[in-house]
Structure formats: structure tokens, C-alpha cells
Amino acid sequence: MKQSTLFLPTLREVPAEAETASHRLMLRAGLIRPLAAGIYSYLPLGRKVLRKVEELIRREMEEAGAQEVLLPAMQPAELWRESGRYAVYGPELIRLTDRHGREFALGPTHEEVITTLVRDEIGSYRRLPLTLYQIQTKFRDERRPRFGLLRGREFLMKDAYSFDTDEAGLDLTYWRMEEAYHRIMKGCGLRYRAVEADSGSIGGEGGTHEFMALAAIGEDTVISCTACDYAANLEKAEAAWTAPEAPVREVPAAERWHTPGVRTIAELTERLGDEANHLLKTLIYLADGQPAAVVVRGIHEVNEAKVRAALGAEVLELADAETTQRVTGAPVGFAGPVGLQVPLLVDREAAALAEGITGANEADWHLRHVVPGRDFTLERAGDYRNVREDDACPRCGGALEGHRGIEVGHVFKLGTKYSAKLGAVFTDETGEERPMIMGCYGIGVSRILSAVVEQHHDEQGIVWPQGLAPFDVHLIPLAQEGASAELASRLYAGLRSKGADVLLDDRAERPGVKFKDADLIGLPVRIVIGRDAAEGLVEYKERCSKDAVKLTVEEAMERVLALLAQ
Ligand code: ATP
Ligand code: MG
Asked: What is the CATH number of the domain that holds 156?
């Protein structure tokens, strides 16, 4: 491709609205342009990279035995009512009405469509297992679309769905998908971790893993062990813990303690000194609108995913001040577990304390000498807190570390959640009808672009991993005519005849401008054809290295072809 005709609007200025390196670079390198919040156009360079990711994914999906389909984005609301998700999906679901007044949704995901499709077409165990996938635009009216393609409202996803006759079959399909995901992540040049994850509201029994690209801007926290291969999303991560011996100490009866104006754990800690270890904090939540209380030690943070799972809730949110007042009888800051009339979840480490200090459910008062199990119920004691970096690995006791991660992929055992609701049953060998056992497997195709750029860039611009670069080679002649231009077109034709995808900067620009653009768009190899062109010499430089070398044209061609063959 000749650069003079390529639609490649690069930007010198750093776009003010972009907060992350990947967002800035994707705008500056002319890959994408915004249309509205979280909605982007892909320009030729961006489209090319997107296609490369798509092709890599297609190859690996076919390898894993999945077949490609393309399902409608516009989905009847009826379908979503049938699965029970129309109500719970909330404002993220984009809803519309057609000219006849029929309601539709723009697909944020396709469990409903695929499950009814397979239900209507397949009835016998002989036609199973089956895995179908698509690469398609998804719509989610995200509350906070941001960071360019990272969190869009219209974005490209690969979603696959598997249908098996039994759990063993699902295990095998799931394993094949996981393996394919590892190959896709590696093919994209991503530094990543596969982590155990929380099953969330998409629901279903069984396992789920997320593929996390490691990056400081990631919205998730990945906890991993430095000694073994344990890795989990913070939402799911556990700390090593063994229940201590039951305390023998006699604890006096709980007593009220006047603490005017002391509402936060920090303020209490300051008042208490050593006793701060005994602090218990009590948070009031609304789980699907119903109040519940959670108690953790003062040094710990509540893990909302664990609480949500324990309460079986779709939506969990901290209660507002009014609800807290109604539930506890006191303003925010004085809640405690004693005497509460709502479901009470007590973190196991809070439950193990010999005694604690809690709010008294009365303005300006706390309680001391509160004994878990004596003064409040431990019926629902469990693990409800976030792991901290000073905790030990639950598998091997090793040290844990935390990283930020971008969720680029997600594999999920759904079980019969959708097949049972939507009637996707098959007849087994004995003639009995059973629901199909499902799995679903997503990849954020457009999000991968942001994750890759976030991991692969320097001060000057993008440094594409070879497999994803929009072109393989950037040829930069320093003059538009004469020896340099002639040699450049010879090299251009030669490399193209060997299958290389070449970008020739034939623009009448100063060398400085050409070099800046070349660094910005970040093709793996840059070949400058300058003064030594008459002697058949060129300057060869790989984007990931600092050094340029002088080579003959033949040597340069060989190097490029060797690199492409890797
Ligand atoms: P998140 O927690 O980031 O909102 P999710 O759990 O809602 O993700 P899934 O429903 O599992 O995501 O979707 C499958 C994949 O699609 C995700 O792993 C992610 O890579 C991608 N994805 C999800 N939401 C977006 C979005 N708004 N923009 C771009 N990619 C997305
Ligand atoms: Mg989401």
C-alpha cells in the first residue's frame, strides 16, 4: 500500500479526552475515531488489526471444534422475558420498539438466541456435542464507557456456546476452549493470567475462568501466588485460614461506650490504640432491594461478589442512609450486629475473635466486649472479605501478589441455567428427555486491541507484536525520485511478491515527519532508503530495538522474510 493514498489521519497533538496510553495512541495513530461516548469507527489501520485478531480467533475456534454462525443483534424482548433476564439486565440493555409496537433488545450477549436456535433444531443425543461461535457487534449501555475500545457501548465480541449431553462432555469442551484461549492470548502477544472468577449474575453451577491482560489501567485485581500456580480474581480470591481454637477467656457482658461523633473506623482506631485489633465493622446492604448486614474485622474490606453469591442476589448495593437508619435505628457509622433483624453475614475471621467492638445501633454509641456467637448469631459465618497482599496462598501458603488486569476473555460453565428455562432438551440413549449442558465463552475482540496497545508501546508510539501489526514492513525512501525512490519501489515489489504486507511512505514529507509517523504507527520493521541507495544499501531497524543496521537490499529482504516466518 502506498501511504500517499492511505486514509491514515495521524495526530501530533495528544487528544485531551484520552486518559490512557492505549486510547491516546489509537487516536493519534489513526486507528479509531469516536462517534459518541463508547462508540467508535475503525479506520483502515484499526480495521486491519481487528481483522488479524478475528482471524487468529477463528483459526483457534475451528481448531477447538467450534463452528461459526452469525446471529441477529436485534432480539425480541419476548425471548429475554422467557429467560427471566429482561427485568434483571437493567439499563445496560438497549431496548427499542418497532413500528408495530413490538419490543426488542439490542443483543449484549446471545445465550437466549442460541439456546432457542439449538432447541428448535436439535432433539437427539446423536447430534451432540455442538459448539457454535460468532464474531459480532454487541451493545451494552455501559454506565461508564471509557478508555477507548476498552469499555465501549458498541463493541466486537467473539462469543461461543457449547451444548453437551453430560457434565463430563462439558468438562472436555471447556478444557478445549481454555486451551484455545491460551493460544489466542499468546498469539496476540499478551502478558496475561488465567484466573478463577466469580460466576456473577450470568449464573450457573461449575467453573469459570477469566483471561486477564496485565496492565496498570485494568479495572480488575488479579491475585496470584508467587510459589504455586494459584491465581484468582480478587472477587473470588481466598486467603489461607484455619479456624483458631475456641477462646477460653471469660468475657464480661457487652457494655455501651459513649463515642460522640466517631463514625469511621479510622476515627475509632485512633481512639483505641491496641484495641483497634478488635474492631468489627458492620455494613448494611440492599440485596435485590432487601436489607442485609455484613460484619468483617476493621482491618478487612467486604467482598461484595462473595456477599452477593451468599445471598443469591442479582444486584447488591450499599444501603442508603435512610435504609441504614431504618434497619439499625441509628445514622450511618453506628451500625452493629447485636439485635439486628435482617440476614447477618459474619466473616469467619470476625467470627473467630474472642470479643469485639461494634456500633451500638444508636447514635453516638458503640458496644465493647461483644462476643461473636454469644451476642449475635454466627449461623451465616463464612468468607466475605477481600484478600490482602499480606495474606497467604490458600493452596500452598506461599506469598500472594496483586496485579491490575483487563478482562479480555471469559469461559464459563453454564450447566442447565438457560437450557432448562428455555426448554433446550434432548432425548438420551434410553429415550429420556434431559436439558442440554451448556458452556459459554467470550472474548472482547475490540478490547484486545486496547489491551495490546496498552502493553506494547513506548514514548514514541505503538510497538505492534508481529502477528497483529497492520502492515509487516514500513519502507521509507528519503526522496520522491532518483536512486532512493527507485530502490524503494524495487524493494516494495520484491517484498510483496514474497507475501509481505508493505507500507511504502511515498509522501512528499520531510524525513522527520515520516520517522515520527513510522514510530507512532509502530510496524515491526522500518527500512529507510536514503543516501546509500545508489550503492544498494538500506537502513534496517526493528521497532522493538533501538539500533539501525546498514544492509544490502538482499540482506534486508532476507531479514524481513525470516522475521515473518517466525
Ligand atoms: P466487564 O466485567 O468488563 O464488564 P463482563 O463480565 O460484562 O465484562 P462478559 O459478559 O463476560 O463481560 O463479556 C465477554 C467479554 O466481552 C469480556 O471478557 C470482555 O473482554 C468483553 N467486554 C465486555 N464488556 C465490554 C465492553 N463494554 N467493551 C468492550 N469489551 C467488552
Ligand atoms: Mg460488564
From this structure: 3.30.930.10
